[in-house]
Fold each of these.
Amino acid sequence: SQALAYRFEVKEATYTRLCGTKSILTVNGQFPGPTIYARKGDIVIVKVVNISKYNITIHWHGVKQPRNPWSDGPEYITQCPIKPGGVFTQTVILSEEEGTIWWHAHSDWARATVHGAFIIYPKHGTNYPFQKPDFEVPIILGEWWKRDIVEVYKEFRATGGEPNVSDAFIINGQPGDLYPCSSGDTFKLQVHNGATILLRIINAALNHVLFLAISNHPTIIVGTDGSYTKPLTRDYISIGPGQTIDALLEANQFPGRYYIAARAYSSGVNVSYDNTTTTAILEYDAAYNNASSSPSLPCLPYYNDTKASYSFTSSLRSLASKDHPVKVPLKVNHRIFSTISVNLLPCPVNRTCEGPNGSIFAASMNNISFVLPNIDVLEAYYYHIKGVYGKQFPRYPHPPFDFTAEYQDLRLEVAKLSTQVRVFRYNSTVEIILQGTNLVSGLDHPMHLHGQSFYVVGSGFGNFDKHKDPKHYNLVDPPLQNTVVVPKNGWTTIRFKAHNPGVWYMHCHFERHLTWGMMTTFIVKDGKDLKSRMLPPPSDMPPC
Ligand code: C2O
Ligand code: CU
C-alpha cells in the first residue's frame, strides 16, 4: 500500500445551469468535485483548506476508517466544523473497500455541490472479479437548485415544513437536453462499438431515490458500496442517496445515440416530488458525425413504483467467492429493533410552522429525534466531557404499535428531541432491524452507517415478524453495503461486527430527514490490546 496526497480547497465558483448563473460551493472550483483514485489498502491524506465563508466538514462515504474516527467527518459527531480560513488534514485509511465509493460535505446541505467520486482499484497483482473493462467513467447523479442552496436550507429550517424541491436532476453536474437551456449541458459518453465500460454510479442527490436506465442497453451490476456482487443483469437500477453501484455497459447495439436517463422514485404519498428526467447521451463513434439522429428514451419505472424499486434492491447478492468471502455474524450479541419515522412537533411560540396543521416536521429512530450537540460526540467521549450525550438510545420502540397500519394514533406522531447513543463492546456482533412506519407518511428511507459496512440479511413489507421473518434471512450471500433503502411500510435487517473502535453515525441519507433528526450514533469501545484501540487524535482537529 502507498500514501497518496490530495489538496481540497473548499471555495466558491460560478456555474451556469438552467438558464441562470450562480455561485456554488466547490472543491478546487470543480463541480462535481475531483475524483480520488487509490488502491485497496492505501492511505490517502487530504489537506482540506476552507477558503469559503461557510463552515464545512468532509466525509469519505464508504471508508471504514479503521480505528480512526477522527477523519470521518460528520459535523458534531466526529469533529467540529472547519471554520472559514481553517485547515484540517484528514487521514483516510482504506481497508477492505474495493470499487466505487464517494466523498461529500457533511455539514448543513453543502453536500449538494461538494461531492465527488472515490475510486478504489484492486491491489497490485490482483484483478477485478469480472471481465476487464475497456474504460471506466463515474456517473454522478445529483440535484440542481436555481436558488442558493444555503438559502434553501435556511428557509427549510425556518419554516418547519417540507424543503423546496430541486429544479433539476443532473448527471455529472449537467441536467441534460430535456431541460431548458441545457442542450450544451449534457454529459456525453462516447464509445467504440464492442467496448465494455465500467460505470461507477453514485447517487449524490439530496432527497431522492433515483431510477436509472440506458436505452437498449441493460447493465450488469458487479458491485455496490465498495464491495463486489454476483453479476446481475438489469434493464434499470434503483439507487438511494449515498449508494454506489458498479455496472458494466456493453456497447453492442446498433452504433447510434442512446439516452442514459434518471428520474425520481418517490414513495411518499404527500411528499412533493420531481417528475423531470435528467439525461446523458451514450454515443457510438460511428454516430459522432450524425449528431442529428435523436436518441431514444429508455423505459423507467413509474415514479411511485415501490415494487420496481424493491425488486432491484432485494436482488443484490455478495460475490461470496474464495477471494471475497462473506463474514456475516451468525450469532448476535446486540439486537436493536428501531422504527424509522417521520414525525411532527408542536409549534414553538413565535415561529412559523408550515408542517401539517401548523406543526413542524421532525424525524426519528425509535421515536428519538436526534439533536446534534455543540461539541462533537467523539471528542466528548474521548475527553470524558459530561452532559453532551446520553447512552439511552432505546433497543426497541415503546410502546410497540402497529407500525404500518393505515391510520395511526396521532399521539404517536410526536417525537422526543434528545441526543442518545448506543455503546457496543469491541468485537460484539450487532443486528439492527429497521422498521419503517406509516406515521405522518410512509416512505422509503436510505439508511447509512459510518465506520463499518453491514450485511443486509433480510427485508420485507409490513411489520417485521420476529417469529417468521428471521427464518428467511440470507446468511449465505447477503450484500455488503453501507447504505440500504428500507422499503416503504416495510423493514430491513442488517448485521455487522463492531470491530472498529470509535464513534459512528447512523442516519437516513435523505438530507431533509437527517436535518429532522432521523439518526443515532454508535460508540464502539476499545478492545484490550493496543491494535484494537482508537488512534490518538490528530493535532489539527478543528476547534469547537
Ligand atoms: Cu454519505 Cu453520513 O453520509
Ligand atoms: Cu428517511
Note: Helices lie at 149-159, 306-313, 377-382, 511-516.
Amino acid sequence: LVSRKKKPENTIIDVKGVKIGDGSQQFVFGPCSVESYEQVATVAAAVKAKGFKLLRGGAYKPRTSPYDFQGLGLEGLKILKRVADEYDMAVISEIVTPNDIETAVDYLDVIQIGARNMQNFELLKAAGAVNKPILLKRGLSATIEEFINAAEYIMSQGNGQIILCERGIRTYEKATRNTLDISAVPILKQETHLPVMVDVTHSTGRRDLLLPTAKAAIAIGADGVMAEVHPDPAVALSDNAQQMDLKQFDEFVSSLRSSAFVQI
Ligand code: PEP
Ligand code: MN
C-alpha cells in the first residue's frame, strides 16, 4: 500500500494546516524531553517567532539506561497540549506502547514511533487503527526494506497518514552517534509515496553537524527536517550534547534561510 507503484502521486499530510509532502520544506523543532511547562513554552515561543508551527518534545522516553530520565509521561503530553493551544502550534511526541495510543490521539497532532519501536508490530498496528498522522522513525539497524514494511504495517490497518523519518543507522563509524543514511531519502521517495523527513539531531549526535546535514537533507529532497532545541542544553535531562540553545537555533535558521535551495 505504501508503494509508489500502487499510488504514483505523493501523499500529503496536513498537520494543523502545515502540509508535509507537497514539495515544501517543513521543520520540526523542540526539546528532546519535555521537562516542564516553562521549558517547552520557552522553546515554543522561539520556534513560533521564526514562523514555524511544528513542535516536538518527548514525554515517554525510551532510554538506553533504565537509570536515565524516563520522561514525564502523561504529564508531558498535557504540557505539550497546553503549549500547542496557547501558541497555536502542532505537537509531535512519541509513545512506546499500544496502551497509550488513545490518550496520544487526544493530546497530540502527530504520534511518533521511535527507532527502538520500529518493529514493535503491536504498536504499529495500533497506530494504523487511529486517524492521526504517524511519524515513523527508521530502526537503529533497520534496512530500508524493513523500514518500508513497518510503514506497511501501519497502512494495512487503514491509517495512510505516515511520515517516514531517517534518523541514522548503526554502523562501525564512531565519529557520529549514528550514520545518517542520506541516500535513504531519495530511495524512500522513489519506493513509496510517503513524505520523508530527516532527524539531524539523533543521526549525528553532534551539534556542529546539524546545519550541514540539514542542508544536505533539503538538497537531496527531504520533505522536512527535525532538530532538537533546548533553552539550556547543558542542564537538559537527555541529549545534552546535541541540542541547540536558542542562540544556536537562531543562527541555524538564519543560515538555512540564506541557502539558495532552502525555501523557508
Ligand atoms: C526522539 O526523537 O526523541 C528519539 C528518541 O529518537 P529516535 O527514536 O530516533 O532515537
Ligand atoms: Mn533526543
Note: The mean pLDDT is 97.
